[in-house]
Design a protein that fits this description.
Largest sheet: 11 strands, antiparallel
Structural class: alpha+beta
Shape: flat
Low-confidence stretches: 1-18, 94-108, 247-255
Mean pLDDT: 80
Number of strands: 11
Number of helices: 6
Number of domains: 1
Helix content: 10-25%
Radius of gyration: 19 Å
Order of helices and strands: HHEEEHHHEEHEEEEEE
């Protein structure tokens, strides 16, 4: 069951055909980045239950493997057990093993996936409010990004979720999407889920003239086999450098 929260980090879902959504939302989901430029360096902070590591990622290409450098803590010897599990996920490249791993062992930080969001939203969404320059739409989740978890558990979770997606009214792109539990439920006879949240955040990236993934928060709490559990994971892209993009903003440079 705990694998479900981790699998939701993947921003991948199968494309499908959907009915027309409200125009601003439809436009935001149709606004693909103008350029397909791969970042040359990403500084990513990952936090699990309050413990964090900062990692530099240099994406592979042209025969090069993706390279990872531990920035904080300064050495592997200084890692706690929780931090070591997170760091191990960056160096795992067996996709089949990763699919069967527990939270903290492996994960994916993907691109802005409009089709995955369309699959999650389904055929309809309703404007709930306008606030802080954003249009906030509500929807009934049809899927979760990544489609993680066993089918029965995933479907039971979806039946108890409410979704909201925010569109930046000025730039016309998706700024945030949230899936939150509406009430406690039992996915099976031996477990109860009391809390669940999956939130993904996006920002406008001038280098690609479109939205890019900026961060996410996932949390789950409940009980299983008469034992309580609570887990929170956060991912934040501290800085992203594209080829020829020039210097980063002050304070954004990784150590």
């Amino acid at each position: 069951m705990l694998r479900l929260i981790f699998a939701a980090a993947c921003l991948l879902a199968a494309p499908a055909a959907f009915a027309q959504l409200p125009e601003p939302l439809e436009q935001a989901l149709s606004a693909a980045p103008g350029e397909t430029i791969t970042a040359e360096r990403i500084a990513l902070r990952m936090t699990v239950n309050g413990e964090a590591i900062l990692v530099e990622i240099r994406p592979g290409g042209e025969g090069r493997d993706t390279a990872y450098t531990l920035l904080q803590p300064a050495s592997e010897e200084a890692l706690s057990e929780e931090q070591a599990e997170m760091w191990a996920g960056f160096n795992r490249d067996d996709e089949e093993d990763a699919a069967d791993s527990d939270p903290g062992e492996s994960y994916s930080v993907g691109r802005f996936d409009a089709e995955g969001l369309r699959a999650a939203i389904g055929a309809s969404a309703t404007l709930l409010r306008e606030e802080n320059g954003r249009l906030v739409y509500g929807f009934t989740p049809q899927s979760l990004p990544g489609q993680g978890g066993e089918d029965g558990e995933r479907d039971a979770l979806l039946d108890n979720l409410a979704g909201e997606i925010e569109v930046d009214a000025e730039r016309g792109h998706v700024a945030e999407v949230r899936f939150a539990l509406t009430e406690s439920f039992k996915p099976n006879i031996a477990a109860r889920i009391n809390d669940f949240l999956l939130e993904q955040r996006f920002v406008h990236e001038p280098a690609i003239n479109g939205p890019r993934f900026a961060g996410m928060t996932m949390s789950m709490a409940g009980s299983a086999v008469f034992q309580s559990f609570s887990q929170t994971m956060e991912i934040d892209l501290v800085s992203v450098r594209y080829p020829g993009a020039g210097p980063l903003e002050a304070g954004a440079e990784s150590p």
